[in-house]
Amino acid sequence: MAKYTTTTPEWAVSGSSAVMSGIEGIKDTTVGNINPDFTSGKFKPKRRMILSEDEFVEGVSNGDRMILSRAITLIESNNPKHFAKAQRVLQRLLPRTGKALRIGITGVPGAGKSTMIEAFGNMLCDNGHKIAVLTIDPTSSVTRGSILGDKTRMGTLSRRPEAFIRPSPAGGTLGGVARKSRETMLMCEAAGYDVIIIETVGVGQSETTVRSMVDFFMLVVLTGAGDDLQGIKKGVMELADAIVVNKADGDNLMRAKVARGEYERMLEFIRPATEGWPTHAYLASALTKTGLPELWEVIQLFKNKTTESGVFQKRRDGQLLDWMHAMIDEHLHNLFFGDAVITGRMPEIKEAVLTGVISPTQAVAELVKMFDVKRAVERQVVDIFNAH
Questions:
Q1: Could you give the percent of the chain with pLDDT greater than 90?
Q2: Which residue stretches of 231-339 are H helix?
Q3: Beta strand 242-245 with 280-283: parallel, antiparallel or unpaired?
Q4: 315 Cβ contact list (under 8 Å, min separation 6)
Q5: Residue-wise pLDDT tens digits, 211-255
Q6: Are strands 216-221 and 101-107 parallel, antiparallel or unpaired?
Q7: Handedness of CA 271, 233, 281, 117 (dihedral sign)
């Protein structure tokens, strides 16, 4: 057996570590163990880099998690050549959507949202449900990157075949809601998941975006962090169908009960988020699993009651129109800033604004005047055709 030797370079400081030699005859190709069939060329893995539209539809319909992940990646892509294909796939899958219960969960950082979702999700899986968790991860305003580590905090749930967890970058969108979250949610419904949970970055004024996507909106709070009455904005509480005081266990149980009472008194002066449904505060503990079955009963009662009154379907209809309006805004935004004439004149207009030659309002008026929608649309069609 070959042995290692150690030498000390001439440039090394006295007492520093020596350099260990390698072993002759060993080629450094990669890290870790290598299957000999790979290096000899006997085994060639099958790789389908590009799936067809039919393969996407069939795979998602059959609940194939791998294809579902790739379909979501297609949906989230900003590449123009992916847009048309993604929309065709989504259009064909629409008849399979709309049957899942959509739950939004928000709360202050550290409230234990991810831990509670894992305990809640495991309970639902044990009861025969298929659950999809869409977590929105903060995007750095400096590097434009995201850690996407929410899945690591749901280790038990992520290993269950009945659960699908998908972290997505906020992408700078206000409130931390990814631009394609609605399409992603529909993809999961088409794959057969009957409970969809969307976890947001944290409490913010734009949590109305999440409210416009889900049926039941839950605000998770905790005690001892100064947010019992002041840290949570009244505007966010007005959106919640339930307020859950988390970590109600051990020495914190009594404080949690006091906090629940305070929230209950506050809710008496706040208009309910859903017509015909009074919002209440509840206790829960992801650690001891207490309060979670009762919380699920509350959600089921909410669905039954709002379905009977017609509020459930009315809300969903309104969400579809909100989605359409949001897509109109996004489409016009992309057309405007993708127009060659606008991009060509933009540096000149910016310089004029910065030097005080024209006001920002006048600059916008000038840009809008030179914008031609027909020209922009025709150019977009050409770009998509060339991309193919």
A1: 44
A2: 234-237, 253-267, 292-309, 311-338
A3: parallel
A4: 215, 274, 306
A5: 888 999 999 988 865 554 444 556 678 889 999 999 898 888 999
A6: parallel
A7: positive
Question: What CATH superfamily is the domain 97-312?
Answer: P-loop containing nucleotide triphosphate hydrolases (3.40.50.300)
Q: Tell me the CB-side half-sphere exposure of residue 5, using CA atoms within 13 A.
A: 6
What are the domain boundaries of the chain?
97-312, 339-387
Angular region, 148: left φ>0, alpha ψ -120 to 50, beta rest: left
**Tokens 């030498």 appear where?**
7
Question: Alpha-carbon distance 225 to 222, whole Å?
Answer: 7
SS3 248: coil
Report how far residue 331's alpha carbon sits from residue 354's, in angstroms, rounded to the nearest whole number.
28
What is this structure's pTM?
A: 0.77
DSSP for 39-75 reads: HHTS------SS--HHHHHHHHHTT-HHHHHHHHHHH
Residue 115 and residue 386: Cα distance in Å, rounded?
A: 47
Residues 6+ apart with CB under 8 A from 186: 90, 93, 94, 97
E strand spans, 180-310: 195-199, 216-221, 242-245, 280-283
pLDDT band at 80 (very low <50, low <70, confident <90, very high): confident
351 membership: H or E segment, kind and range: helix 340-354
Tokens 């050409």 sit on residue: 382
CA–CA gap between residue 302 and residue 308 (Å, rounded): 10
